[in-house]
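I hope you will forgive my troubling you with a question about protein structure. I should value your view on which stretches of the chain appear to form regular backbone elements. Here, with my thanks, is the record as I have it:
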Amino acid sequence: MLVCNWNQKLNPSVVYIFQRAGVKVKEIRLKKNAMHEQVKGKTMEGAKEMLTDGDLQSHRTLVFGLAKAFPKMNVRKGARQ
């Protein structure tokens, strides 16, 4: 559970969804050879920007968790939308 002064102002559903997303990343990281890294693009400096299974699982948890918790809210599925 988050122990910060600011979390008292957050909706408990949102805190739970973000905690679950973090757990997904940790689960993937702990599995041996489960990261399956791929290059999703390059930064402005030209460095490779990596995408892992942990990123994807976390993203799905956030998007679908928020959409379920707040069905009237338009949840965007990508950073560039």
In short: The chain has one domain: 12-69.
